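User: Is it possible to get a 3D structure for a protein together with its bound compound? The compound here is 2-acetamido-2-deoxy-beta-D-glucopyranose. I've pasted both below.
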Amino acid sequence: MARLSIIVLVIMVLVLRTALSELCNPQDKQALLQIKKDLGNPTTLSSWLPNTDCCKPEWEGVSCDTDTKSYRVNILDLNGLSLTKPYPIPSSVGNLPYLGSLYISRMNNLVGSIPPSIAKLTKLGFIRISHTNVSGQIPNFLSQMKSLITIDFSYNALSGTLPPSLSSLPNLVGISLDGNRISGTIPGSFGSFPKHFTVLTLSRNRLTGNIPTTLAKLGLSFVDLSENMLEGDASVLFGANKNLRKIDLAKNLLAFDLGKISLRSKNLEGLDLRKNRIYGTLPKVLTSLKYLRTLNVSYNNLCGQIPQGGKLQRFSEYCYAHNKCLCGSPLPPCT
Ligand SMILES: *[C@@H]1O[C@H](CO)[C@@H](O)[C@H](O)[C@H]1NC(C)=O
Ligand SMILES: *[C@@H]1O[C@H](CO)[C@@H](O)[C@H](O)[C@H]1NC(C)=O
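Assistant: Yes, that's possible. Here is the predicted structure of the complex:
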């Protein structure tokens, strides 16, 4: 009998000690366990157990804030979970108020729209929902989440138009919305992104109309607007911008005089303009680009001699092919 009570006592002390030494905030744990349940208890999350510490590495995809020693959950990275049937993004993610990064990617069977509860995550800097079947609109409430630094919603089934209010986010550095079903025009307000905004990728959508001239105000480094139905002039993207490193405008309906662009960036590494209706000549300034690694201007209406020098002769003839009358190395000589 005495032996039994000693054993019971030892067990109680042990249980109490683990409970006291647990770093996980009880509210955070409750939210995480709800997320697990809302996703149908996927096997990848089998390590999320009520009687263990969510700040321990066993909790797949969960990190707690060790810097400030608040130990609140600040990163949730749900990648490649295999869901047994269709589930929406659990609205319980909104109950992790200290979340700085939310990554949800490559999840089969993830459907439905982006839940409004995400707006409660006022400390969120980085949000990624990518390679899922999440649909619906890009939510307007994002513009209230003033901590956001990057938004990556690439490769989902999002539709509707681009919310003009996104440009009011004061800390935003980049937006990636590639591979969705977004339609309409690029809002003129997108010219008022903050000074440090450098990445805009909207490829593989259904965007139409002209590229707004206001975008000339941005200091973009990476621009990808390829595979849309954009038309008209794209020269605004080259002019004022000294930081441009990569620009992909391939497979649109763009029509402008390439010979008239003023390219201010000396650091351009990639220029893809293939399959548009761009006319005029190739500007001489291209020969001064020391870091140019990729170039493709094929399938346009360009004409005249390819400027000789710099890196321009290192690209194959296929990068210049199918234009109106481009000539000179690597294409046959001008006559
Ligand atoms: C999205 O749904 C389509 C059609 O049901 C399916 O083929 C595709 O694999 C799904 N994608 C993801 C990432 O679940
Ligand atoms: C340039 O684009 C054309 C048309 O899409 C393609 O056939 C060619 O392979 C491309 N060249 C390079 C080097 O990528």
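DSSP finds two helices and 22 strands in the chain. The mean pLDDT is 94.
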